[in-house]
Amino acid sequence: MKNDILKRLRYSLGKDAGAASVQDWRMALSLVLRDQLVDVWLDSARRAEVNASKRVYYLSMEFLIGRLIEDMISNLGLDAAARDAVEALGQDYDMIVHDEPDAALGNGGLGRLAACFMDSLATLGIPAFGYGIRYEHGLFEQSFVDGAQAESPETWLSQRHVWEFERPEVQHRIGFGGHVSRDGGRATWHPDNMVVATGYDTPVVGWQGEWGNTLRLWSAKPVNPFDLESFNRGDYLAASRSEALARTISRVLYPDDTTENGKELRLKQEYFFTAASIMDLMCRHMEEDGDIRALPEHVAIQLNDTHPAIAGPELVRLLVDDHGLAMAEAITLARRCLAYTNHTLLPEALERWPEGLFARVLPRHLEIIREIEAAQQAEFPGSPHILEHGDVCMGELAFVMAHKVNGVSALHTDLVKKTVFAELHRIHPTRIVNQTNGITPRRWLHGCNPALRDLITQQLGDTWVSDLEQLAALKAKRSDTSFIQAFQQAKRSNKVALSNWISETCGVALDPDAMFDVQIKRIHEYKRQLMNLLETVALWNEMRDDPDRDWTPRVKIFGGKAAPGYVLAKQIIHLINDVARVVNADPATKGRLRIVFPPNYNVTMAERLIPAADLSEQISTAGKEASGTGNMKFALNGALTIGTLDGANVEIRDHVGSENFFLFGLTASEVVDRRHQHGFSRAAIEASPRLQRVLGQIFEGRFSPEDPHRHHGLIGMLYDHDHFLVTCDFDSYYDTQRRADVVFQNSRNWASMALMNTASMGWFSSDRTIQGYARDIWQADAPRSALERSA
Ligand code: NBY
């Protein structure tokens, strides 16, 4: 390996060892690893082809993969070899591994889920492609300027992305705009703009390197890169105008994880990557099989939310306009290929596009959507409309064009049936199914938590990594003193490591024996970071009032980005930073209470924070968090959860046991009832002197003396439009936190509860989730059968 690295350094990067930077060493090592992936990857592709396996196509606007190097190393089983080789070359292995920039091609849970699914598909040996966009700029970088969020562009591609293979030969022309002509009933779309989608392939090799799939990300290029005539005239700007326009499409990831802002560019992005993916898989099918009617036997297309919902009309368009199928047959055939995952009930997040915009950008698709709508109404009179109030409703479109629709946790699926798709569910009672989310144990335990991983492997051997339910055997150790001590030791070493990193990056010293209480996720009102902060201020007040009490020392850790246009979320960030500044400077609570908010939360930061957490904050308003996946990562790594009965929290609590979970707050149905009570938030505030005091302090500028009015908007919102019931759940949350304080004082007992969490989380492996999709939705090759058949 050492020689391979030197060779790559020299012949691929053109550097000699003396002149190589950390980045050069990292690239050289990565290229060596990539070489090792290629054989299994190409071999897997060949086997899928020879066996005519059904392939899964996961269409997602987002793949939040983070760094890849450690994944690649450990999936190939090269941990020791890579470290030895790098050290033999006199280089710092950890520095090299940490040099890789995060591929931040996603906003949050939805994008990270896609990345975990890719890992599980490869580990299970299910032939699959991930299809998405190769954004030039991933999610913005966050910094704090005087406590307020500032955004700057992310530039991961400013250095070469070593893992990918550019496929200049994989090109599809994607049209926009124009008009539709008709010849003897056959429609032809004449777009007036074209861009070319070019594929970039990243191999995704599963655990132990047995199977490899492809993540194919599309980049937009101009059809004619360059207008020579303008150039020769000296008009250089005009010469490259078409290039600039095309590139815009794959330039940036939309940073909004909730509201649909109805931008034309966003619709173009969605169509761009969806159309390229559909054309790509159709070409593959026609080459391999040739019978267009056999498509559903070979193709399972999963739509990750409605963002690729145009796949339905696009598939129908190709079947009708290019392959000559009748409309009704095309719709049925397309539906047999398509399935749709819903990730939200928030009405503002359900995509709707004005018909006028659609007509301008995708005129043929709008016609087809009208036909889909007509067919649906003919068969099911009174069915909810896809076209409504002058909008194209992408949720209804996705539902009608899918043979299965799934929610992402038991509670969420139940609410999908009862709320957003109630009427469609009545008409199609078997279409909605549940597939509770999962997380890959390779990254979220084996990779990020070596201390705990080694302890588990000592006990169980290493087969748990691809069969996570084996962790259940650890339950027998809950009263084993020496095992519990070792478990505590692993957590403590992670906390020490995190403390060192926080002291370097935030300049705040932490006590590793304090309770590390962590809330990391996108900043959103429904996730209620604000409630966590109000509780923190209340605790601070009480510590100051009663300094002699035996307080449990706490470190409150926040991480997360606010969408740049989400004003309230940005105010919450500002308030957290303002409170942190005052509390951290207070000698009265020194050593007892600290607040830290490291900027630019991303996958890599999650990998640092999660293994070091004692308490996991999963405190969304019940009924609002579709599932959550961070909640699973924490529990797997031995944190206890404080949480509401929301999303997958419900199932986590069922698995780990209610005695090992800090439950509080209103239930989803109580939330709905409470909202109907006139003046509910004022009533809640009046009933809670503790909360009143905190709100008063913030209102008076206790934490922002330089700008005492700064947080008036937030406080006013809590009094008058507390849509997410922060005020109603506050007391119950505060009391539950104090209960957690008491339990934490008995560290042995806490550790055995934490162990019960780790030991009970096997079911939340994304391997289980993917097996569920394969069985209930894709009818794809049973896991590993593809491997066995061709072995
Ligand atoms: O998907 C999240 C859910 O909030 C979370 O509960 C769930 O666990 C996770 C995986 O199922 N949703 C999410 O992350 N959504 C987005 O990031 C997102 C991004 C873009 C848009 C909407 C939602 N958009 O409309 O542009």
TrEMBL record:
Query: What is the name of the protein in this document?
Result: Alpha-1,4 glucan phosphorylase
Q: Which organism is it from?
A: Ruegeria spongiae
What range does the record give for the signal peptide? none
**Taxonomy, superkingdom:** Bacteria
Give the required cofactors: pyridoxal 5'-phosphate
Give the catalytic activity.
Answer: [(1->4)-alpha-D-glucosyl](n) + phosphate = [(1->4)-alpha-D-glucosyl](n-1) + alpha-D-glucose 1-phosphate
Classification via InterPro entries: Glycg_phsphrylas, Glyco_trans_35, Pyridoxal_P_attach_site
Q: Which Pfam families match?
A: Phosphorylase (PF00343)
The enzyme's main class, written as a single word, is transferase
Record-listed E.C. numbers: 2.4.1.1
Described function: Allosteric enzyme that catalyzes the rate-limiting step in glycogen catabolism, the phosphorolytic cleavage of glycogen to produce glucose-1-phosphate, and plays a central role in maintaining cellular and organismal glucose homeostasis.
- Could you list this entry's UniProt keywords, alphabetically sorted: Carbohydrate metabolism, Glycosyltransferase, Pyridoxal phosphate, Transferase
- Family the UniProt entry places it in: Belongs to the glycogen phosphorylase family.
